[in-house]
Design brief:
about 450 residues; alpha/beta; Alpha-Beta Plaits; TIM Barrel; 8-stranded mixed β-barrel; 5-stranded mixed β-sheet; 17 strands; about 45% helix; elongated
């Protein structure tokens, strides 16, 4: 049985589907003996988009047509030689529940059989669907949970299957994933981290650390502002441990704004110091932050409200940001350049840069990714790549900086290749603003090992 529900269903329609799910739960509770039951949640990407694209078709007809492949799947497996009974219920615009009964009591056999069925469903749903004169391609992901004859409730089984579905989607979609207790632990940990991040934003637990950027004359000309999180219960948390989640949840947008605001305020404060008034601050901009409609206006507002010289603020953009939406990127970069802020391409060489676009974009600097720097003394190929990037930047009239410089050998080789600027542990670790100021105050210039 397949229950179809319109995207904008009435209260009565929603109640009807909920009642079917409750009946589904009663069936699970009525299982006797050692019989194995498999609960599968099928998430089919783009179903909602398909429905919404058919505005001229009545809602009920839309739902019935889009449910056609699921009816086919249900029919297909009711005829399965193993006499597996399939019951399907829609629990969301893009999600369906399937229950497989009468499987082998031995869990490994039941799991293997469930895997075969799930893969057959996935393959079937991968086939294009033709209706209303258009062909639509859906992307199925399937989460599977096995009932082991314990005290699991129907709600728990559904929850476990949904957790597995989330993992299948997160792993790239178009795959089958089985529930494992470690999945739930990971999701619980993720939820706790997200809650702590919201609290960190509210309670002001973030700070910017600053790392030196130096020129060939050993003069400190810039500091990269690097985000750190001092969590009361986790201690000092590095960006690699929370930035990916912030990106995924959208928290990176308010966090990114805080970073920009803090950098601008720090630049203003450093104007009063003899050893800091010339320092630029560079900050990393995330993809979600950059592609916000009001991003340029945010930068303009912060520059004007803090009264800083815009050229002392440098924004670092990765290749993935730049080439995600080239038209939007070009427009925004030109607007940012008009404000007067600097623009640097971060992690250069790790993506798929188009040199034709690179010529059009108003960058003033390329930043060589640290992976090339780390390996340049070990393999000639990496050294050649680094030298090529340096020559490319010079020929395009761009500045270039190498990040991740940790040894004297790396520094010497970069210097021979003509690299004018450096950043890495060889010159200094990221430190809080006060420590950074003290570091500069005890010297007029940084002494770099030769």
């Amino acid at each position: 049985m397949i229950i179809s529900m319109r995207p904008h269903a009435t209260r009565e329609e929603i109640d009807y589907v909920c009642e079917r799910i409750r009946e589904f739960g009663h069936k699970v509770h009525s299982i006797e003996g050692e019989e194995r039951v498999v609960i599968g949640v099928i998430g089919v990407g783009d179903v909602t988009a398909c429905l919404e694209s058919l505005e001229a078709t009545p809602g009920v007809e839309r739902a019935m047509r889009i449910s056609a492949p699921y009816k086919f799947v249900s029919k297909e497996f009711k005829q399965d030689r193993s006499r597996i009974r399939v019951n399907g219920s829609e629990i969301g615009g893009d999600e369906f529940v399937v229950m497989l009964k009468h499987l082998n009591h031995e869990v490994t056999h039941a799991a293997a059989h469930a895997k075969r069925v799930a893969e057959k469903i996935r393959t079937t749903l991968n086939d294009p669907v033709l209706f209303a004169g258009h062909q639509y391609q859906t992307t199925p992901s399937i989460g599977v949970s096995l009932f082991h004859g314990t005290d699991q409730t129907a709600d728990e089984l559904l929850k476990h299957a949904d957790v597995a579905l989330y993992c299948a989607k997160n792993a790239g979609r178009n795959r089958v994933c089985f529930f494992d207790p470690s999945m739930q632990e990971a999701l619980d940990s993720r939820a706790e981290l997200e809650a702590d991040l919201w609290e960190a934003l509210r309670e002001g637990q973030f700070s910017l650390f600053y790392q030196l950027q130096v020129g060939c004359n050993d003069h400190v000309h810039c500091a990269e502002g690097l985000l750190r999180w001092s969590c009361p219960k986790r201690g000092l948390v590095g960006p690699n441990d929370f930035i990916p989640l912030a990106e995924e949840t959208g928290l990176i947008v308010p966090i990114g704004y805080w970073v920009l605001e803090t950098a601008c305020k720090q630049l203003k404060a450093w104007e009063a110091g003899a050893v800091t008034r010339h320092i630029q601050i560079s900050v990393n901009i995330s993809s979600r932050q950059f592609h916000q409609p009001d991003f340029v206006e945010q930068v303009r507002s912060l520059v004007e409200s803090t009264g800083i010289a815009p050229a002392r603020l440098k924004l670092e953009l990765t290749e993935s940001i730049v080439f995600k939406d080239i038209e939007d990127t070009v427009e925004k970069m030109r607007a940012l350049k008009a404000i007067g802020v600097g623009l640097s391409m971060d992690d250069f060489g790790t993506g798929f840069s188009s040199l034709s676009y690179l010529v059009q974009l108003p960058f003033e600097q390329l930043k060589i990714d640290q992976s090339f720097v780390h390996n340049m003394t070990a393999t000639p190929a990496n050294s050649i790549v680094v030298e090529t990037i340096i020559n490319l930047a010079r020929n395009l009239g761009l500045d270039v900086i190498a990040e991740g410089v940790e040894t004297e050998e790396q520094h010497a080789l970069l210097t021979r290749h003509g690299c004018p600027s450096f950043q890495g542990f060889l010159f200094g670790h990221p430190v809080p603003a006060a420590e950074f100021e003290k570091m500069l105050s005890v010297r007029d210039e940084i002494t770099v090992p030769k």
